Records
---
Amino acid sequence: MMRVGMSNPPYLLRHLDDFAAILRHPNVYEFVHIPIQSGSNRILNAMQREYTLEEFYECVHRIRSVVPNVTLATDIICAFPGEGEAEWRETMELCDHVRFPVLNITRFYPRRNTPAASMKQIPTEVAKRRTSELTEFFNSYRTLDHMVGEVHSVALLETAHDKHHLVGHTKAYVQVLVDPQEARLGETVTVVIMSTTKYSVVGRVLRRRCERLLAKSTMTARQINWRSLSVVACFVSAFAAATAVAIRKVHAGRR
């Protein structure tokens, strides 16, 4: 699987339809990182960004219309020089509107010999407050809870930071944690999502063929009690196998 790197709105807008089509390719993750930095056009202009808030929204809305499950990541710089309360509120409104699953929050620090370094700086206490406010807001919502019960095929290619779970990713590049007792590193497995956190989901491996077949049936994953699935599905499978053997014996006896 391939994951597309960071792309800015001016370049995306030139090829937006083609880019959305690429994300739908089976070998490309439905993930895109579009840095916005601020929700205020005045601040974007001060940053010398070559795009507007409206152009950013166009990228987001058009990509989501074609790839509904896309994972959107962005970056926000808090307390850029000249950012007043009105501009900061615009940034908060942007984040509230889009509800980014991935949000990289940075407090502005001046770099030597850059235009921003010579501008009047925002007081440190204000910068800290804005950074904390956005961080608290980001932690106040969850974007993965709807995935409970979904079935995904994931390649387990790394070990989690907890040094225990194996890690795979869904098509939308959502991190899936799998117990190493259920699979081996390097395997591609079918999992059902059992629980979620802010940043990842926990999957249970569907090893038995009857489980995988049931997952692909007309029943939706959320209609299945996955904790009792192994017992029920495999009982049905065993019953069907026993019935087939009995039928063959009956036919053999009639010959």
---
Amino acid sequence: MPTAISVRSLQKTFARQIAIDGLSFEVDANEFVALVGPSGCGKSTTLRIVAGLERPSSGMVRASGETVDGPVRNAAMVFQAPVLLPWRRTLSNVLFAAEMRGKRPGAFRERAKELIVLTGLDGFEHNYPHELSGGMQQRVAICRALLLDPTLLLMDEPFGALDVMTREKMGFELQRIWSETKNTVLFVTHSITEAVLLSDKVIVMTPRPGRAKAVVPVDLARPRDVGTLKDPAFVELCAAVREAL
């Protein structure tokens, strides 16, 4: 399997404080990888560096075989807040991704409609953000991220602001969407359960300055469902990640 993301000896310093120090890891193409660690260990900063939105102090990042020295063209990000335009309806918010890249929205209208159906938002195409629940708003954000068929999907605590039940449901939804799109996903989360449930492997980071402390492979059959949460193998994997933290 070709390598989609390669991070080598990454260091990031803010005002003389080292946030990330010697971080190295790899993500294979079409792999779903979770990044977990204590607050302030540099998870979100790592994601921004991989996306090319922030420069490292030293080290190297390669995405899709190219050295990252600016915004990665074939990557899309999903943040904790959906960041939807309140004056736009669902379909228009999804199509905004095309406008941001200087493309004609009309050329992506059918793709946007397909994604709306895929994420269970059909029937809500013409609703404004304030008419949608938090989970539905985040689905719109995921549609927007997937509109241009990115190779890399970078997700920074996308379900962190949701209640427990909605968060669990969105996790299963994301797994279903990923099984059809097969993007390479780097997923930042504070939830051990969420990380193990969704990913092919979990990268555990140390407290600041952030380094890769452990890599826990997740060899659980897919698709995963509520029953997976009771599987002894799942419980053991969660314990392994927790112990590494």
---
Amino acid sequence: MIRIALYLCPQTVLSSLSMADDAFRLANQLAGEALFALLRVSIDGQPVQLGYARLQVDGDLQLAASADLLLIPATGSALDRTLQHNRALLAWLASRPQHQQLASLCSSACLLAAAGQLEGRRATTHWALAEQFRQRFPGVRLQIDELFTEDANRFCSGGAQAGLDLCLQLIARHAGDWLAQRVAGALVVERERGGQSRFAPLLPLAGHDDALIGPLLRWLQLNHAQAIDLTLLAERAHCSTRTLLRRFK
């Protein structure tokens, strides 16, 4: 039996936790036996308030240390807050041995990275956090198009529902692809879904602080299907092509 510790903190995204919990419980149900034992842990073993729900846990990080796999559900996009409020977890994560599997869903990859567990390794996170993640953790080999990554017992998922793709991969790794396929079928999801970059905007978000570039980006978002060249863009921005190239960063 594979013991999985699900880490809860006030920043945990409840839907991400539920998605992971449901996937492994469904795997047990479809297999007809308890292949995965799910444990909920918090930093101090106390219940955790997540929005409208106050969740009980089975223990603290000492219990998590005995698990085969520690899985951290998504923690939202406020990375500074997540890192600040989980400083005790970071110290504990940094001491985890190589044989213990560590997995992050969506934005919680920042916790594994801040603890040094992703240094020099392939990883992914939500596509919207890519630039911020690269700046904070330049030593991580970020593969932002991937729905999930696996590198030496360190696992990461892309954004939101990509967490389910990683859970299916973990089910396949520990119990066989046949079971992962059955879980995917029961949840009516594709087992192989391609990359996550197709969900990202084709163009930068239009909230640019340059008074010349901001309106131009908004126009591009609405008109990107038509034939557009540099001269047309310069005319729209009421400037020369040289000025446009200099200010379009």
---
Amino acid sequence: MILNDEQKKVVYSNEPFLFLLAGAGSGKTRVVVERIKYLISQGVMPDKILAITFTRKASFEMKERIDNKEVHVHTFHQFCYLKLIDYYKESFKLANEEIEPFSREELLEISKHKNNLYLSKRPKKFIEYQNYLKKNGLKDFDDLILGVYFKIKGKNHAFSYQYIFIDEFQDTNHLQYSLLKELIKKDTKVLAVGDPDQSIYRFRGADSKIIFLYVKDYHAKLYTLSTNYRSRRTILEHANRLIVRNNRKYKKELTPTNVENTHVYNLHFSTEKEEAILITNLIKLFKSHQIKDEEIAILYRNHSRAFELIQHLHYSHISYQTYDDSNEEEKIGVQLLTIHKAKGLEFDAVIIIGLEHGILPSIKNHSYMELEEERRLMFVAMTRARHFLYFSSVKKNGDNHTFTSSQFISESGTKTIPGRSINDIISLGDFNGRKAKNSRIDSNH
């Protein structure tokens, strides 16, 4: 495996505590995998290595790439579930993420209260919810981490790891960081990997400031990965132009290895119906130029914003897959995802819809801190794209509500063009040099 100079410094570092500031598409998983393999080659026992990932999909991918079954690779929840079941011999059932009669907002507030180690104001429905869990022999996902944390807090516990790796550290909450500190023993060495520019789970209790706490608490050595292996140069230029508007403690600028140019435009429509027609034809254009269905992604802030487009894709007999009916290990058809669900993924072509004020950024987010989170969300969406990136905005929705375009369009230096016909997009020249196959595209829309 060929590593660049930035990556080599991390893989072969002798520092006990490291923080890797890893930009989008910079090969952070490669660095973690290669460091684990290097440590094993130097005599470290595989079962003394613990790697924590953010999602099950990331855990599965890392296990495959490490190719050593003795290395412990889990999400925080998987790790704690296994400890409670196998080590502490507890018996319980996992609660569903949605539990009647509790609303989604109530469950979110309860979860944040638990993730703050009960130090925040207790939600109104907290006692009722806990009684419901106890009555039905249930634990929720937060209880898994709380259960292990309180069992080992301040004790000389049996869980001993020589090396700990934590991925997506910018989305860690205070409970998870507290558990990590209890797992760190005298001779434990840690590599935390994250990017504050991609911190998008503040609404669930994540706090990117934990990065600063970790660096301060353990005098961690800072390394940076800024070389991007994913996106074309112009895509990164627009993404960099957007994110510099945030107040950032750790600053970096993504540098592309792919220096090809591509146009990044915002397509502006009068209505969502007009938008759905042209985006459907744009998808057909992608497909006619050898881009597979599953390498085309439609990203949005809220599910409701994609309703008109989903209907039109259905009527046009274009295969598509929303997150609700997707399999984490298999992608089939054009991918329709919220930006949050697209985190960690990448596609040849990305279309971000809903670039209207009140949608993205959300109308709920008025404070400067909340606006910065929305800007990070947009940055994450943009950096999912390898070759093609388009924005889309409308003047009116189906309820005849009038919108102004999102400020993120101008902040990223993106030009708006009227979404009139597919020929207008073809005339931009982005598809020159790409071999097209026969495909029926309605050029009248």
